[in-house]
Write a structure and sequence with these properties.
Elements lengths: L11 H43 L15 H38 L7 H24 L10
């Protein structure tokens, strides 16, 4: 035969190699999903707190001072939101990496072009998300949080 096509139905050994290559990006993707879930729940709590503070009537002298905390809560929300976006970008990069690894292994190619760079980019996005989470955590608790 003049042109030999790659074998599209891999044998058990080839499937084992494909799954081995996919283990690290899959673990990375699971970690990103858990991290986004954590930040999402914190963002929901911050948003609920802002809503409850905004509901305080200006004539309520006993609780009006609590509204001063809204700016800190908005900063927390900003850090959480930008961290979530960065983590989601890391997840997209990890998903693309997973797809590239599967295609190259499945097609029998010798090189996965761009895979290393995608992993570096994904790791940088996740690192930025962790930095944003650390910023939010550093201002995360205020004395006004205890009051209603």
């Amino acid at each position: 035969m003049l042109l030999e096509l790659p074998q599209f139905v891999p044998d058990a050994q080839r499937l084992s190699q494909i799954f081995s290559a996919a283990a690290a990006p899959t673990f990375f993707l699971g970690s990103v999903a858990a991290f986004v879930s954590l930040m999402s729940s914190r963002l929901a709590a911050v948003t609920d707190r802002v809503r409850s503070l905004n509901a305080i009537d200006e004539s309520d002298a006993a609780r009006a001072h609590l509204k001063a905390d809204i700016e800190r809560l908005r900063r927390r929300a900003h850090f959480l939101h930008s961290g979530m976006v960065a983590a989601l970008r890391a997840g997209i990069c990890a998903t693309l990496l997973l797809a590239i690894l599967f295609v190259t292994e499945f097609m029998g190619f010798h090189y996965a072009y761009g895979a290393g760079m995608l992993f570096i980019i994904a790791t940088m996005f996740l690192g930025f998300a962790l930095y944003r989470f650390a910023q939010e955590a550093s201002i995360g608790y205020g004395g006004a949080d205890e009051m209603q």
